[in-house]
Amino acid sequence: MSEIPLVSELRAKFGEGIIDVNLEAIDEWVEVTPGVLVEVCQYLKEAEGFRFDMCNSITVVDYLHTDPKKAAKVDWDPHLELVYHLSSIATKLTLVLKVKIPRWKNGVEGDLPGVPSVAGVWSTADWHEREAYDLSGVNFLGHPHLKRILCPDDWEGHPLRKDYEMPLEYHGIRGR
Amino acid sequence: MATSKIDDPRVIEFDVRTDEMLINMGPQHPSTHGVLRLVLRTDGEVVSDVEPHLGYLHRCAEKIGENLTARQWIPYTDRMDYLAAMNMNLGWSLVIEKMLEYDLPERGRHLRVIISEMGRIASHLVAMGTYGLDLGSFTPFLYGFREREKILNLFEEACGARLTYSYLTPGGATADLPAGWTDKCRQFLAEFKEVVPELHTLLTTNSIFVSRTAGIGVMSAKMAIDYGCTGPVLRGSGVYHDLRFHGEERYTEMYEGYVFDVICADPETGKYPESNYEFHGDSLDYPEIPRQAILGDCWHRFYVRMLEVVQSVRLIEQAIEKYEATSGDWGKPIKLVQKLPAKEAYMETEAPRGQMGFYVVGNGDSIPWRVRARSSSFCNLSVTAPLCQGILLADIPAIVGSLDVVMGEIDR
Amino acid sequence: MADFVNYILNIEGSWFGYVVAALVAAVLILHVVAVGALLFIWMERKISGRIQDRLGPTRVGGKFGWLQTLADGIKLIAKEDVTPDLADKFLFKIAPYVGLAASYAAFIALPFADGVVGLHINTAVFFVLAVLGLEVFSVILAGYASGSKWSLFGAMREAAQVVSYEVPLGMCVVVPVMICGTMNLTTIANMQAGFLTNWLVFNDPFTFLTAIVYFTCATAGVNRAPFDLAEAESELVAGFHTEYSGLRWSLFFMAEYSSMFIVSALASILFFGGPHGPIPVTEILGFAGDSLGNPGMEAFSEETAKNDGFFAATQFGLILSRIIGVVNLLIKGCIGVTVMMWVRWSFPRLRIDQVMTMCLKYCVPLAAIGFLGATTWQALDLPTGTTLTGSHRYEYHELWTAGLKDKVLLDQDETADSSEAPIPHENDTQTEVNKVPLKTVPVSVLKGGER
Q1: Residue C390: its pLDDT value, please?
Q2: I need a surface site. Which of A50, A86, B14, C217 has the fewest CB within 10 A?
Q3: Span of B95-104, B163-172, C101-110, C179-188 with lowest mean pLDDT
Q4: What's phi and psi for B349, nearest 5 deg?
Q5: Are C160 and B34 in contact (CB under 8 A)?
Q6: In this structure, are residues C155 and C230 in contact, taking their beta carbons and an 8 Å threshold?
Q7: Whether residue A5 has a cis bond before it, omega within 30° of 0
Q8: Which class for C398: exposed (0-12), middle (13-18), buried (19 or more C-beta within 10 A)?
Q9: How far apart are CA B412 and CA B379, in angstroms?
Q10: Which chains touch C (3 or more CB pairs under 8 A)?
């Protein structure tokens, strides 16, 4: 894949901001720190030869085993992983960006972790981030109007988190 | 009173300004294609602001996916874009196959081309018909459904279902096409040939239709890309991008050896590719582009769909030939409880409404760790708010209809 | 009619005959409205079905589903009559009746054939248009009183649209009035007796143009697609009748379909010969007399009854010719309605600004051109389609009224000689027919009395 020059350029430009690169995965991915996310995205969108002008999707994967037995077996600590699928209409390239963040801000349960918003880079990220916020509970800092999109505004919890429990009732409707 | 002088011009403006009205268009409204709710801020007939509200059809498909095996989730993909369920099946099947690094036999490849292109025709027929309905023309809707019914009959024969097929599965399809199916399919294509010009007469070239759609909801190529619009919405803005040509290898190899055009106007000349395709012996002329039409408006989005239907027919004709030339295995479905590797895969396919992406994360179990559906209509709909500013109320159905959204796919 | 009743009951000159006549006329017209709506809704279903490549209703009432509307009517009557909380209750309830009353009232002055008219009015054209224009009040009331924003939108659109289209509509109607020199619909219709070429639509190119503009404006005036903005279902849910249900809802539809028929019938009277068929069969056979010089001819004449007996007074040939005339007019009206249906099921809907553009930029100038052109044509004495050679219709009429006036005055002085036929037209090719003697003088024409 032609992402190898891309990786070297990214490394040269952002240095410590690029945490990990996996070129053996089915879809090659690059992991960056939340701090450089917006700059990396801006660079990828505008850099000649790459021009990742389309943000296909923003996904949040919750890594958490609620079962302590299973949790003991895995080699990762609980965390959230943001996956940005980018592609380019100009150059037909694809790229996966990853950002790992803690499940809760400063470890306080209920405090949503923050990630800088890329809605300023791609307008489509607006709705994708709203969905990620709604379903997975990630606070996108700098998003123009971060509010729930699929669930009702007064819904409690973020359903795609692994420790989410359906509320017992919602406005008199039985949940469980 | 009469002698009082007003210095601040805004005072006059405030005096004559009428009240704005907030109106809920939907979730129960004839032209919001299901349960979309648009909150309109209007001053008389002029709409100043539109805010879409989603989620009335949210069925937690992604959460359910974390509790089912790959094959068990197929029926849930059916219910996303229920008008093109075959294409949803295909997208999910391909991503699982990508993860398992499974290669499909050739016969299955051609079968998938036939089925998914038939799905595209069926979906575009509904899009076209309901668009007519949005503009107050009933008849094309029934013409479209009449033809779609024939496709559904064929699908029913192949898989037993008429709306939610669950036919294409990871590994291939649940069954091979029944004997004599291809002949019936050919007969359908021959009949369908008569209908395309009819639809062009009723809508594409109808002057009222043109005046309602041409120059309305103009979206530049830059804006379309920025908002993540895909499919006919993107190509209607003159962006040459079709995953059947430009997608991942696993998807484009399905179309290897097929001859067809990407329907997209050249942004320089505004011309569409020449119709060099002999449609059952007749050369099929595309209707002229009306003078009022601007690249990226509702009319162009509609036109792209109308022309794509013909390209799909072209593909099916070739696919039937190739399918009949092969024999043997069509690709049996994977095991119901198939272990997925601890990897992740993302794959997009060109569904009728745009690029439908599926993302799956495995952890060595048969049940995926995370499932995600990137919906084409979701992104296409996000462009509504910027498009629907300062337009007339009657243009809202015209614009939303031209984006051709299916709420099942948006809310998932 | 009144004379006939009074004669039968032997109470000449009594008010009773007039009341009975009025009741009979009212009931008959009610049937036209109600049965007409039933028929047209069924027609609409069948026609739209055929246009859309399907069958339409097939079950209720035998093979063609002709009782489908009746079954629906029963269903609608049985439905709950819902009044929204936010509605202005009184106005909400009264609105459908206003609409129905307006379109019903317009039938009063609509002549189905010579003499077959609820109320003979000299200014029938004016009356029909004015009363039909009242229908807009029902839509505005319904939209305003529903307490729904969508209804209000529908009402606003309707008000804007109908008021605008009254202008070209009126200008088109003036053309036949000008050519015939009268606002009396019966006279206008009778001036087109004879062969197809006598129809005003073929009078000159400008009347042809005017007829087309009239029909377009009439379609817009009764809110039919592609001008059905007030109830545009893809934009306004159902527009002004969003909140209505059951019987009240169906009243709107009865009003709509009867207005459709009225404007079509009006078109046929003004431009397409009215009750006169393309070939004047009854006149050739000598049943009808020449209606031209003889507009007040009564099927029953009291005086003849007095002198020659009951059967002589009842001219069955004339009655037959009038029945044929009624059938002719109904067929023409139905054709007009069918065309409206055909248009509705073929075209998308226009946008409000396009509807206004259509009216102000196309219909009004075209109507003006039609009017000016037709006037010039008359003034320059250019050849017309009529067989009444050597004379303009309006002159003909003027002469006729002149004669009539004398006649009436004489009649009132009781010195009238009934054998002195007031036929001023000298070049008439149908003198044979014209010899049918005038038995009565149409005092009612001037008095505007009931028949």
Answers
A1: 45
A2: B14
A3: C179-188
A4: -125, 160
A5: no
A6: yes
A7: no
A8: middle
A9: 13
A10: B
What 3-state DSSP class applies to C52?
coil
Q: Residue C1: its pLDDT value, please?
A: 62
Strand partners, A123: none
Q: Pairing between strand A54-63 and A79-87? A: antiparallel
Q: What is the dihedral of CA C38, C42, C48, C53, to 10 degrees?
A: 180
The token duo for C198 is 């006598």
Helix (H, G, I), strand (E, B) or coil at A139: strand
CA distance B137 to chain C (A): 4
Task: Name the stretches of chain B with pLDDT < 70.
Answer: 1-18, 275-285
Q: What strands lie across the sheet with B37-43, from one edge to the other?
A: B21-25, B37-43, B46-53, B391-392
Interface test with B, best of C235, C349, C354, C356 (most B CBs within 10 A): C235
Our separate counts of H helices and E strands in chain B read 17, 11
- CA C345 to chain B, closest CA, distance in angstroms equals 6
Kind of pairing, strands A114-116 and A139-141?
Answer: parallel
Counting one residue from B and one from C, how many pairs have CB atoms under 8 Å apart?
A: 83
Give residue for tokens 């995600």. Answer: B372
Chain B positions in Cβ-Cβ contact with residue A160 (cut-off 8 Å):
62-63, 370
Residue C422 has pLDDT above 60, yes or no: no
**% of chain C at pLDDT higher than 90:** 2
Pair of tokens at residue A68: 């302590």
Q: Which residue has the tokens 């009649």?
A: C411
Mean pLDDT of A164-169: 85
For chain A, domains (ranges, CATH) are 3-174 (3.30.460.80)
Q: Specify whether the CB–CB gap between C148 and C86 falls below 8 A.
A: yes
Q: Inform me whether the pLDDT recorded for A41 exceeds 70.
A: yes
**Structural contact between residues A139 and A72, judged by C-beta atoms closer than 8 angstroms:** no
Confidence check: pLDDT of C237 > 70: yes
Q: Which of B34, B86, B91 is nearest to B230 (CA)?
A: B91
The count of C-alpha atoms lying within 13 angstroms of the C-alpha of A131, restricted to the half-sphere facing its C-beta, is 27
Start-to-end C-alpha separation, chain B: 61
- Nearest alpha-carbon partner for B127 in B114, B137, B141: B141
B228 touching A (Cβ < 8 Å): yes
Query: Phi and psi of B306, rounded to 5°?
Result: -60, -40
Domains in chain B, CATH or no CATH each = 9-51 (no CATH), 59-411 (1.10.645.10)
| Complex ipTM | 0.87
Largest Cα–Cα distance of chain C, in whole Å? Answer: 70
Confidence of residue C431 (pLDDT cuts 50, 70, 90): very low
- Segments of B6-137 assigned E as strands: 21-25, 37-43, 46-53
Torsion-angle region of A163 (φ positive above 0: left; ψ -120 to 50: alpha; else: beta): alpha
Q: What is the share, in percent, of chain C residues with pLDDT greater than 70?
A: 73
Please give the residue that has the higher pLDDT: either C429 or C93. C93
pTM, 2 dp: 0.81
Residue B138 has its nearest CB partner, among C52, C350, C351, at C52
The identity of residue B136, as a single letter, is G
Confidence of residue A104 (pLDDT cuts 50, 70, 90): confident
- Whether C449 shows a pLDDT value over 50: the answer reads no
Cα angle B147-B148-B149, degrees, rounded to a multiple of 5: 90
CA neighbor of C373 nearest in space, from C164, C226, C206, C233 = C206
CB C17 within 8 A of CB C11: yes
Q: Which 3 state secondary structure label does DSSP give B242?
A: coil
For residue A96, the surrounding DSSP H or E stretch is strand A94-101
pLDDT of A154 over the 80 cut: yes
Q: What pLDDT was estimated at residue B284?
A: 66
Listed by start position, the domains of chain C span: 2-447
Q: How far is B383 from chain A (nearest CA, A)?
A: 8
Position B121 scores a pLDDT of: 92
